[in-house]
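Researcher: Here's my situation. A collaborator sent me these components and asked whether they could plausibly form a single complex. I don't have experimental data yet, so a predicted model of the whole assembly would be a useful starting point for our discussion.
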Amino acid sequence: MDEAACVALLEEHGVRPTANRIVVAKALASSIQPQSLAELERKISTIDKSNVFRALTLFKEHHLVHAIEGSSDGTKYELCYSHNHEHDDDQHPHFYCEECHETYCLDYTDMPEIQLPEGFKMTSANMMIKGICPHCNKK
Amino acid sequence: MDEAACVALLEEHGVRPTANRIVVAKALASSIQPQSLAELERKISTIDKSNVFRALTLFKEHHLVHAIEGSSDGTKYELCYSHNHEHDDDQHPHFYCEECHETYCLDYTDMPEIQLPEGFKMTSANMMIKGICPHCNKK
DNA sequence: GTTCTTGCAAAATATTTGCAAGACG
DNA sequence: CGTCTTGCAAATATTTTGCAAGAAC
């Protein structure tokens, strides 16, 4: 995703496209796999960790990224490709490799629907499968 | 669960039933909802945090508890009611209330099966639905 | 007596906030 | 100007380890 596309994406979600935010968005866009705050910080050494964090928090509020939890090594973030600004409607399960600690998107399959008991109101869901990825399996 | 039952449970899973471990197991057994390390520590003020942690780690290794992740406030632990000592075969989705931070077991429903691509090997799965629980919904 | 367990302290991680200076509208 | 954004420092929170004393086998 080039700079212009990033700017457009940010604006589309109501986020002012500052220099830092564009860099963070580009870093996310150029990553195949969801990234943790620490991983992003390592890639973007020019921006302070706290601002990467603030950018991610802001993106999350504006439904521009998903926070992916359950990997046992912190929250990971991925760009949200849906253009819905109100909800995260493109959530999908993920796979966490216990050896290399990478998180893979299983985006060929939808998030399973769970029937909730009376009175529970769902806002989001996280599904994380853990195991060994093909790459580590070969070793 | 009384003391004798706890001792039996620990032994059944190959964990030596020390005084501390029995207390931790009892605390878990008497909790309707999965507990975080901090919550357990608060309940069991007599035992040091590090030992509660070590007990939980040991229990996890012996498939006596499940670690539940994805709640955005740390790992929670619940007693495993399966008597399988090799695998966690009674995993189920959970519901995390974003208001009261309680985690509810949705154990009336099985963990959904996800078809993994060639080469991925699953060892466990976590599914967390987030939202508002019936109790907080009423407020 | 050798191994296991415990408590206390503290390291290692991870997340989040305060604040003053600077940028932007 | 007034608000938003940034960098740096540091507070919080959470998880994990080191170690010496004590308990169990």
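Model: Some features of this prediction you could bring to your collaborator: Strands of chain A lie at 35-36, 65-68, 76-79, 94-97, 103-105, 121-132. The interface with chain B takes residues 67, 69-72, 75, 93, 95, 98, 104, 106, 108-109, 112, 114-134, 137 of chain A (CB under 8 Å).
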